[in-house]
Amino acid sequence: QVQLVESGGGLVQSGGSLRLSCAASRTIFTIKAMAWYRQGPGKQRELVARITSTDEINYAESVKGRFTISRDGAENTVYLQMNNLKPADTAVYYCNAEAYSGTFSLGGSWGPGTQVTVSS
Questions:
Q1: How far, CA to CA in Å, does 65 sit from each of 26, 78, 95, 109?
Q2: Which residues are CB-neighbours of 14 under 8 A, at least 6 positions away?
Q3: CB 71 within 8 A of CB 56
Q4: Which CA distances in Å does 115 have to 38, 55, 64, 77, 103?
Q5: Which of 36, 53, 73, 84 might form a disulfide with 48, Cβ 3.0–4.6 angstroms?
């Protein structure tokens, strides 16, 4: 359906910032939303932030005020600006895209993930 490639992860000290990017391949399908999820060590994957094609946005409570999601609709690219990072933000961050063929959902596509490590 849609191929996703994430970039921008790395190692940063507590209080630092990182910017993640996720580019979707060219597709004949319509991407109606893109999101960032994360999975920390020993934890389940959780939604971090999601943005729709109409710019509706929602965030996990734990990142509100620190993270900002944005998109370039023309390029099917989504970004996650992460400020004031905490050790609890350490995780593999995954990009997700919700693609549709007309009104038919094709389900979500996932990127391979990018590691974010925040040291104390």
A1: 32, 18, 20, 27
A2: 85, 86, 87, 118, 119, 120
A3: no
A4: 9, 26, 20, 19, 34
A5: 36
SS3 for 87?
Answer: helix
* pLDDT < 50 positions in the chain: none
Q: Quote the CA–CA distance of 19 and 51 in Å, as a whole number.
A: 16
Q: How far apart are CA 1 and CA 104, in angstroms?
A: 13
Could you tell me how many residues make up the chain? Answer: 120
Distance CA 35, CA 98 (A): 9
Query: Rounded distance, CA 103 to CA 30, Å?
Result: 9
Which amino acid would we find at residue 28? I
- Provide the pLDDT for residue 48: 98
What is the pLDDT, as a whole number, of residue 29? 87
Helix H, strand E, coil C: the string for 80-104 is EEECCCCHHHCEEEEEEEEEEECCE
Q: Give the pLDDT of residue 26.
A: 84
Tokens representing 7 are 């970039």
Q: Which two tokens stand for residue 24?
A: 């979707």
